[in-house]
Design a protein that fits this description.
Blueprint (H helix, E strand, L loop, with lengths): L16 E6 L5 H15 L2 E6 L3 H10 L2 H29 L2 E5 L5 H9 L4 E5 L14 H8 L4 E4 L11 E5 L4 H9 L1 H4 L4 E8 L10 H9 L5 E6 L6 H11 L4 E5 L2 E3 L5 E2 L1 H9 L4 E4 L1
Parallel strand pairs: 1-2, 1-4, 2-3, 4-5, 6-7, 6-9, 7-8, 9-12
Antiparallel strand pairs: 5-12, 10-11
């Protein structure tokens, strides 16, 4: 039986609403194209959520003369109009229903609220080389932990030829990993290759067994291979997972997202931090 045959086209567990964050950054077009491609596969609906760094703009307005402030406001308005035109044109070309939204107010609150009504949220990795990519401190982390939805993180550089053909799963028997696998089922059922990866934490501790998760996936119509990898010398678990994912030519990594504490400052688990900051392939994160 071809994997996914019993599931495609029947509306079960498909991503029907894809929310993509839009801004004026260099990678906005890449995120848009990816979101539209996902929507085509699942016969879905794409919501383009335009959010930019409003706090910085507001601060600048306070320091500027009225005429300069009006000119800058006009520039921001034009940027917003251009972003909308680009999104709607891309959706039309893709043959996908695209819905534009440009909410006001705190960006974290807006992204979280709109994200909770989506099946998956497409966000961009932080990019220190592109000022337009900065939205707010801890923007991605806050959406991952507050939205209750999986976040597909698009790397800051590189071409994305495919997504979901070869899938790697970071597995450690945790609640977050289990949630990530369940959230990723629409992609896993269509994948040609799925590998469940575990990392041995130290010499005296075995990696978590993958028998149960493999059996679970099999019942969901997903056949997965399993590998246990020793942690690379001098590198953390996150880097070991990324090395393994790249070695099997994965085009997306599915992983649980961990936070040791919550508050004004996110204190992330080491693996989550590594994936957020250094991954060169798309990562589907769930908390």
């Amino acid at each position: 039986m071809t994997r996914g045959t019993n599931f495609e086209g029947n509306g079960i567990m498909n991503w029907k609403t894809i929310l993509v964050h839009l801004d004026n950054s260099r990678r906005c077009e890449t995120r848009t194209r990816l979101a539209l491609d996902i929507a085509r596969r699942f016969d879905g609906h794409v919501v383009g959520l335009y959010l930019v760094c409003q706090d910085l703009a507001r601060h600048l307005f306070e320091l500027e003369e009225p005429l300069v402030r009006l000119a800058r406001e006009e520039t921001l308005r034009i940027s917003c109009d251009n972003a909308r035109a680009a999104f709607e044109h891309a959706a039309q070309l893709a043959g996908v229903i695209g819905e534009w939204r440009a909410p006001t107010g705190a960006v974290h609150d807006a992204a979280t609220l709109h994200g909770r009504h989506a099946d998956v949220i497409v966000l961009g990795q932080d990019d220190a080389d592109d000022p337009e990519a900065f939205i707010a401190r801890h923007f991605v982390e806050n959406i991952v932990f507050a939205s209750g939805r999986p976040v597909l993180l698009v790397p800051r550089a590189g071409d994305i030829g495919t997504l979901g053909e070869n899938v790697a799963i970071a597995w450690d028997d945790s609640r977050e990993a289990a949630r990530a696998v369940a959230d990723a089922l629409p992609v896993l059922r269509r994948a040609r290759f799925v590998e469940v990866m575990t990392v041995e934490r130290n010499r005296n501790e075995q990696a978590p067994a993958g028998i149960e998760i493999a059996a679970y996936l099999e019942r969901q119509g997903v056949r997965a291979s399993f590998s246990s990898t020793p942690r690379l010398r001098g590198e953390n678990t996150g880097m070991t997972l990324l090395e393994r994912a790249n070695s099997v030519h994965a085009d997306v990594l599915v992983a649980g997202a961990y936070a040791h504490s919550r508050g004004l400052e996110q204190v992330l688990g080491g693996v989550t931090r590594t994936l957020l900051e250094t991954s060169t392939l798309p990562v589907l994160l769930s908390h």
